[in-house]
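Entry 14. Two folds queued back to back today. First construct below, sequence then structure tokens.
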Amino acid sequence: MAVPKRKTSHSRKMKRRSSVWKLETPTNIVKCPNCGEPILAYRVCKACGFYKGEEIISKNEAAEK
């Protein structure tokens, strides 16, 4: 049975594992056509409540929550 000849050092072990935990930024960030805030594509804007030119969430509903 194969057995490692030397102990794997802490830094070598962490170098190997480092790429696993990297987070990626969302690539589909666009400007809201109504207010200009950056939002995720195909989502309702949290700032103004518009989606595809229609008001989905009124500002009164957003203020209550």
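Second construct, same run, same settings:
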Amino acid sequence: MEKITSFTIDHLKLKPGVYVSRIDYVQGHPLTTFDLRMTSPNDEPVMNTAEMHTIEHLAATFLRNHETYKDSTIYFGPMGCRTGFYLILAGELTSRQIVPLMQEMFTFIASFEGEVPGASAKDCGNYLDMNLPMAKYLAKKYLNDVLNDIQEDRLIYPE
């Protein structure tokens, strides 16, 4: 079997950032998959499931209610390796183009107060696995360490 594209990225060189993972065309319409890498693979501790689950609920809610991006949001969800998230948006987009959206989204998460949307037994299959304080901490760290002054080497996969 052929190795899929995401397994061809050198994870020893990969740093936290916002990367275009791939662009696919479905019936002629482009979909851009973004790699929102929050921790340095094989170098930093991975995120725990509770905070990832909380970020997923908050980010998905934010994106699907966003004035500009609600109709082009296809998917937001965690990477199995727990070092980040995938975001799929309709359209052919660059990493640089979505940085303002990511800044807005992670600011929303970092400052969120109250009940996490969808965190109930009726709405979620594992609603008890949530950690809002840690999700807020990680969102703020990603904003401060990566998004607020993002450099080109954090927007394009390493060679």
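Quick look at the second one. The longest helix spans residues 49-65. The longest strand covers residues 17-26.
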